Every structure is written in C-alpha cells, then in structure tokens.
Amino acid sequence: MDLPMIWAGLIAFAVLAYVVMDGFDLGVGILFALEPQDEDRDVMVNSIAPVWDGNETWLVLGGGGLFAVFPLAYAVIMPALYPAIIGMLLALVFRGVAFEFRFRVATTGGRRLWDLSFLLGSMLAAFCQGLTLGGLLQGIRVQGRAYAGGWWDWLTGFTLLCGVAVVVGYALLGAAWLVWRTEGPLQQRCRGYARVLGAATLALIGVVSLWTPLLHPRFAERWFGWPGLALTSPVPLLVLLLAWRGWRGLQRGEDLSPFLCALGWFVLCFAGLGISIFPLMVPPDITIWQAAAPRDSQLFLLVGAAVLVPVILGYTGYAYWVFRGKVRAGVRYH
Fold first, then answer.
1. Quick one: which of 99, 137, 169, 175 is 20 to 30 A from 43 by CA?
2. Residue 294 contacts by C-beta under 8 Å, 6 or more apart in sequence?
3. How far apart are CA 309 and CA 47, in angstroms?
4. Tell me: the pLDDT tens digits for 204-261?
5. Radius of gyration, alpha carbons of the chain
6. Rounded distance, CA 18 to CA 23, Å?
7. Alpha carbon of 53 to those of 56, 86, 99: distances in Å?
8. Beta partners for 145?
C-alpha cells in the first residue's frame, strides 16, 4: 500500500469536510453584519446551533493528521504561517465564546456586544483561513528540512486576495444555508444576499484561478500544458454550470439547490487546488513521500483512523438528520 497517498487523501477529505461544513456556519456569522434585528439573528444562530461545534471536528482531524503523519510538512508550514494560523485559532475560540454567551445575556446591550464578537470572530477566522491557503499556494522557502523564510513572507497581495475570497465565499455558503433552513422575510433577504455574493464569489474564483498559475511554472504547465489541459478544462466549465444552476434555483424560489451549488463550487475549487499542487505537500519542493512519517507509524495511525472516521461521519449525518427542516422564530435549539 502507498500509505502516504492514503493519508494524503484522508487529510484532504478532512480539510474539505471542514471547509464545506464549518464554512456555512462561519458564513452565518459574517451575515450578522447585514441583519440588525435580534429575532432574525436568533433564527440564524439557531439554524447552526446543533451542528457548529461538530463541524470543527474535521479541522482537528486534519491538523492532527498532518502533525502525526507528515511531521516534516507540519514543521515547515507552521513557522511559515504562524500569524495566520494563530489568528484563525484565536478567532475560532473567541467566536465560540461569543456563541455561548449571547444566549446567556439578558440585556440588549450585552447581546449586541456578543453578536458583534460573533461577527468579528467569524470574519477573522475566514480571512485567516484564506491567508493560510494563499501562503501555502504561493510557496514556502525551505533550506534542508527547515523553514528558511521570514516572519512576514506569507503577507502578499495574493494571500490578501485569497483571504477576501474565502470571506465572501463563506458568506455565500451562509446565505444559501439560510435560504434552505429559514422562511419568510429572512429567507427572501438571504436570496438577495446569495445573488450578490454568488456574483462576487464567481469573480473572485476567476481572479484567483488566473493568478495561481503565475505563481510557479509547475502550476502553469499543469493547467495550460498538454495533457494536463484535458484534466483541468472541465473544472471551469463545471463552475459555470453550477453558477447557472444556482442562479436559476434562486430565481425559481428553490430552497436546497442554491446551497448544493455553492458547496459544489467549493468542491471544484478544492479539486483545482489538488490539480495545482499534487504531489507536493509543501510547494514548491516537499512532496507527499518526502514529508511522510515512518511506515510503521502511518500504519498504526491508519488503524485508528479506520475506526474514528466512520464514527464521525455517522454521528455528523445523524445530527443533521435529527435537526433537519426549517428553523422558526421563537424555537430554541441551544
């Protein structure tokens, strides 16, 4: 068995699961900026209350798997991206505290303070995730087996663009989620948000996709050379197809299809990322096999993952099934 490839696939799956699941609840927090009414904010929070903390399980699995199975990649990526990663983790903690305390505060002023904290924590976490993605994509300087760059190498125009793109994309996921899970005036407003955010997300996907091949000759060859072009050309076509289907669903008043199309965009973007960097674990030099731990360690951990991942999937699916349906004002899930 090619254990590094198996583990790379598991970690990639965990990261994708985190992005599509935690992405929409971060997006709900970002949309607090557009919804001033306490009752509407309560509905928004109640739509994610049963699942938001479970969604972050996938982040723990992805980060823990990287540390245990690809220690060289972990040792290089962390010092290269410490500010962005620490900012993301602190924002997630701050957001979690705000989520809990907004339900405990009786005064309007106190509720507004924690709502603002929830908004800022959600936005900062999403922005830092985009910075991390951009910093990894643009490449990390390595000398021998250690990071050879500076403290601020990650901060470039490309990483800032990725940060903005993730914030806008998560807001789109949040709006589409609320279209599915809410009703009435809030749902109608979220349809309008989804139209605007969908157009902005599509534009940002285009800009980031055109910029990425310019970062490294390897990326350009993968996307525009032959036979790589045969593999990569369906990706932008599918993105446009999902854009048309999602817009049509919003125009026709459908509830679920806009959310599925938004998720499809993220899956395709993740596939494009894989096409660009495979088989690198740390662009532009460290491959999956170079970064891997000893085979015995990988095999031992794989046994645990074979038990743990199905349990997490089963529990997650059960939670979403139990709390399915529309969320209405006055109904508490927390």
1. 169
2. none
3. 25
4. 999 998 898 888 888 888 777 777 677 778 888 999 999 999 999 999 989 999 999 9
5. 20
6. 7
7. 6, 19, 10
8. none
CB 328 within 8 A of CB 43: yes
Pure H helices in the chain: 3-30, 38-48, 52-55, 57-69, 71-101, 108-137, 157-181, 184-211, 217-224, 228-232, 234-251, 257-277, 288-291, 295-322
Q: What is the pLDDT of residues 85-137, one digit of tens each?
A: 999 999 999 898 888 888 777 566 677 888 899 999 999 999 999 999 999 99
Residue with tokens 């470039």: 156
Largest CA distance in the chain: 63
Q: Which two tokens stand for residue 293?
A: 């731990």
* Contact (Cβ atoms closer than 8 angstroms) between residue 254 and residue 194: no
Contact of 32 with 95, CB cutoff 8 Å: no
Q: How many CA atoms lie within 13 A of 214 on its CB side?
A: 6
Looking at this protein, which amino acid is placed at residue 328? R
In the numeric block, the tokens 């509407």 are attached to 40
Task: At 121, list the tokens.
Answer: 């924590």
Q: Position 334: which residue type?
A: H
Residues 49, 195 contacting (CB under 8 angstroms): no
Q: What angle do CA 208, 212, 216 make, to 5 degrees?
A: 165
